[in-house]
């Protein structure tokens, strides 16, 4: 069991960025090629020109380029260039490599986005390009040449949310401890029974090797993280795994959130498939505005039923969705 005694003092950070403050303008030059002998996709990022200025007074930005193979948008699927400082016309000449089977690649999209990174390591969105690799002509030599693409406003999150990421069947139970005396505060446990997942996205056909991670936000320490065993060779894995978290005061139920994420383990990497955030979805935790308190109406309904029905298993089947994954602190 993992204690939440320090949950109210934790500070939460996510992989996030500012999508709305800067104008999207300019172009990016890149080329893609699939190297059959290596079974690798190579993305050659050459340069950008006429980017928006994050520093309006000095008319400059500190841009870098980030790539994903969608629908995967987990940390392990992210590639990025170096940051080129103080310019609106950065030159990179970098190759970003993805080890991926060609038949899988033909079911994916390549997303390239340009970001400004300031001195406090905060990111501001400068534009993106997305290629549908299913329709890409890999035999056309002209498609291997460098080409300029206009940067566009953010569209990926909408597209990702619309994609079917499968479902998770689970049950929650809140077990309040009986108060031994009126002077002592009551703490209890939250039990999370991960039963199974249904119709997971077939990133590698039916050869998924999936498992579920659980973290109770805002505690992102490693001691807060639990996970199931991995179940292989199916897009409908059965886990039947129960996780128990103690140290819950009644008021913590208003501030905490259960983050469940599903991953495919392949070789040395874990690919994000989808997740849930089950809580009250208030946008705040212990008085601080947080990005992760973003539960959907279905996720909120499950949490409310659990809180209002102590010592009772509350079951639901919820659709998995795209999440900004919480960083795990030491």
Give the key terms.
mainly beta; membrane; Synaptotagmin-like protein 2; 43% strand; Immunoglobulin-like; exocytosis; neurexin family protein binding; globular; C2_dom; 330 residues; 5-stranded antiparallel β-sheet
3D structure, described in words:
The structure is a single chain. By secondary structure, the chain is mostly beta strands. It folds into two domains: 14-150, Sandwich (Immunoglobulin-like), CATH 2.60.40; 166-320, C2 domain (Immunoglobulin-like, Sandwich). Helices cover 8% and strands 43% of the residues. It contains four helices and 21 strands. The chain has helices spanning 102-105, 156-162, 252-255, 297-308, and strands spanning 2-3, 27-35, 40-49, 63-70, 79-80, 91-99, 109-117, 123-132, 147-150, 167-176, 188-198, 203-206, 209-217, 226-227, 231-232, 238-248, 257-266, 269-278, 284-285, 288-289, 314-319. A hairpin with a 2-residue loop joins strand 17 (257-266) and strand 18 (269-278). The longest helix has 12 residues, at 297-308. The two termini are 18 Å apart.
What's the helix and strand layout?
Layout: E1 2-3, E2 27-35, E3 40-49, E4 63-70, E5 79-80, E6 91-99, H1 102-105, E7 109-117, E8 123-132, E9 147-150, H2 156-162, E10 167-176, E11 188-198, E12 203-206, E13 209-217, E14 226-227, E15 231-232, E16 238-248, H3 252-255, E17 257-266, E18 269-278, E19 284-285, E20 288-289, H4 297-308, E21 314-319
Parallel strand pairs: 1-16
Antiparallel strand pairs: 2-3, 2-9, 3-6, 4-5, 4-7, 7-8, 10-11, 10-21, 11-16, 13-14, 13-15, 13-17, 17-18, 19-20
């Amino acid at each position: 069991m993992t204690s939440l005694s320090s949950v109210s003092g934790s500070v939460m950070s996510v992989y996030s960025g500012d999508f709305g403050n800067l104008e999207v303008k300019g172009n990016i030059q890149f080329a893609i090629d699939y190297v059959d002998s290596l079974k690798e996709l190579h993305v050659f990022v050459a340069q950008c020109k006429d980017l928006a200025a994050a520093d309006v007074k000095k008319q400059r930005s500190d841009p870098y380029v980030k790539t994903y193979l969608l629908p995967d948008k987990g940390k392990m699927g992210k590639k990025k260039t170096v940051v080129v400082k103080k310019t609106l016309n950065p030159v990179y000449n970098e190759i970003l490599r993805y080890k991926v089977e060609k038949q899988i690649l033909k079911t994916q999209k390549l997303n390239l986005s340009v970001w400004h990174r300031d001195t406090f390591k905060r990111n501001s969105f400068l534009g993106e390009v997305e290629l549908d690799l299913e329709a890409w002509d890999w035999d056309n030599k002209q498609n291997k040449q460098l080409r300029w693409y206009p940067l566009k406003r953010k569209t990926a999150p909408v597209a990702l949310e619309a994609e079917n990421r499968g479902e998770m069947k689970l049950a929650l139970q809140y077990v309040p401890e009986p108060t031994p005396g009126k002077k002592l505060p009551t703490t209890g446990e939250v039990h999370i029974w991960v039963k199974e997942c249904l119709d997971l996205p077939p990133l590698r056909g039916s050869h998924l090797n999936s498992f579920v991670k659980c973290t109770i936000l805002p505690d992102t320490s490693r001691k807060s993280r639990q996970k199931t065993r991995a179940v292989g060779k199916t897009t409908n894995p059965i886990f039947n795994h129960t996780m128990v978290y103690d140290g819950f005061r009644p008021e913590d139920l208003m501030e905490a959130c259960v983050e469940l994420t599903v991953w495919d383990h392949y070789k040395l990497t874990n690919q994000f498939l989808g997740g849930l955030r089950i809580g009250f979805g208030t946008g705040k935790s212990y008085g601080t505005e947080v990005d992760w308190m973003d539960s959907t109406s279905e996720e909120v309904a499950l949490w409310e039923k659990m809180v209002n029905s102590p010592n009772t298993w509350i079951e639901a089947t919820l659709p998995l969705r795209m999440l900004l994954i919480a960083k795990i602190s030491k």
